[in-house]
């Protein structure tokens, strides 16, 4: 699954990762900066926030209540915010593009 991460300064990084991983795991395993993931993917920290490219937003699976609640704690939350640990990579997400926030907390 190919993924594109754009950081707060506009630098673009393209990585590819295995299906079944979370977007957060894919980023951290590939050394993409800007995702802290303090809780290790348990939907309990909100430091894996990403801003999803508008073209992709509606193509992602809906948020769980847990994700929606936790996003309430995220710094600089935006309309297109999601928690990267809650997005499971699947073939239909090939090319997914997200921006990482300038800081997570
Ligand atoms: Fe903690 Fe995603 S890694 S909420």
UniProtKB/TrEMBL annotation:
Database matches in InterPro entries: 2Fe-2S_ferredoxin-like_sf, 2Fe-2S_ferredoxin-type, Adrenodoxin-like, Beta-grasp_dom_sf
Domain called 2Fe-2S ferredoxin-type: residue spans: 1-104
Short name of any one Pfam family annotated for the protein: Fer2
Keyword Iron: yes
Cofactor(s), names only, from the UniProt record: [2Fe-2S] cluster
Keywords (A to Z) from UniProt: 2Fe-2S, Iron, Iron-sulfur, Metal-binding
PROSITE patterns recorded: 2FE2S_FER_2
Keyword Metal-binding assigned: yes
Highest taxon listed in the record's lineage: Bacteria
Family (UniProt): Belongs to the adrenodoxin/putidaredoxin family.
Protein name: 2Fe-2S iron-sulfur cluster-binding protein
Species per Swiss-Prot/TrEMBL record: Halodurantibacterium flavum
């Amino acid at each position: 699954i190919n993924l594109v991460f754009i950081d707060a300064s506009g630098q673009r990084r393209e990585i590819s990762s295995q299906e079944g991983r979370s977007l957060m795991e894919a980023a951290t395993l590939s050394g993409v900066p800007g995702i802290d993931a303090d809780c290790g993917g348990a939907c309990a920290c909100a430091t894996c926030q990403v801003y999803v490219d508008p073209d992709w937003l509606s193509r992602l699976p809906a948020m769980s209540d847990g994700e929606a609640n936790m996003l309430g704690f995220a710094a600089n939350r935006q309309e297109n915010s999601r928690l990267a640990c809650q997005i499971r990579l699947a073939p239909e997400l090939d090319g997914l593009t997200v921006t990482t926030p300038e800081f997570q907390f």
